[in-house]
Amino acid sequence: MSNTLKLHPAHTDLEAILVTETAIKRRIKRLGTQIAETYGDEEITVVSIINGAILFTADLLRFIPNPVRLDCIRISSYRNETKSIGKPQLLHSLTLDVTNRHVLLIDDILDTGKTLAMVTKTITKLKPASLKTCVLLDKKGRREVPFDAEFVGFQIPDKFVVGYGLDFAERYRNLPCIGVLKPELQNPPEWA
Ligand code: IMP
Ligand code: MG
Predict the structure, then answer these.
(1) How many CB atoms are closer than 10 A to CB 155?
(2) Which pLDDT tens digit goes with each residue over 159-172?
């Protein structure tokens, strides 16, 4: 067997790597510890926003030792490939009850804040015991509605990023790192 590190073929579509696979792994482990310390022995009802948060949620949960219940919700795409163009809507709602539960909402990235503002408003109406939010990435400078997450993996600049769950036109979610897509690939007519 060769020892040569074989890069994921989609790496060549990246202009730069913003967060390496190693950095993601290390940060997720620390986030898990921080979350466990915050919740003590309490059970957590994790609500993950799919598809983007799938990889992050799966890896993070392995570092949360608390009893956990997992639910997934889907938000209608209100964006074109790279920009926010409308209002997010809940497409597939919760299946678990969250009333009187400690809810931890997980998303891949906090950008304009519209998605998490809408989802937290919806969940708050269901009267959870507590509601906190965890995002892997935060583009603070892009906020259109005020929103802060309690747990943040990395602050990143205002760049469109892909990988580790994040997509461009549904591609690149399987990249193990997070990178900036080459500008010339951000408008491929064949993907429209
Ligand atoms: P917000 O509602 O503007 O905060 O956007 C949140 C959603 O937009 C995220 O869950 C992502 O699906 C998507 N998004 C925002 N920025 C990026 C990016 O740089 N790359 C890929 N998806 C993004
Ligand atoms: Mg998303």
Answers:
(1) 11
(2) 999 999 999 999 99
How far away, in angstroms, is 116 Cα from ligand 2 center? 10
Strands 68-75, 44-50: pairing kind: parallel
CATH of 24-157, picked from 2.60.120.330, 3.30.365.10, 2.60.120.10, 3.40.50.2020, is 3.40.50.2020
Say which ligand is closest to the CA of 167: 1
Average pLDDT over residues 49-67: 97
Q: Which residues are catalytic?
A: 111
Kindly list the protein residues that place their beta carbon closer than 5 angstroms to ligand 2, a single-atom ion. Answer: 52
Phi/psi class of residue 83: alpha, beta or left (left: φ > 0; alpha: ψ in -120 to 50)? beta
Nearest CA to ligand 1 atom 22: 166
pLDDT tier at 82, thresholds 50, 70, 90: low
Nearest residue (by CA) to ligand 1, atom 19, is 160
Buried residues in 166-187 as b, exposed as e (16+ CB within 10 A): bbbbeebbebbbbbbbeeebee
Cα 50 to averaged position of ligand 2 atoms, centre (Å): 6
What pTM did the predictor assign?
A: 0.92
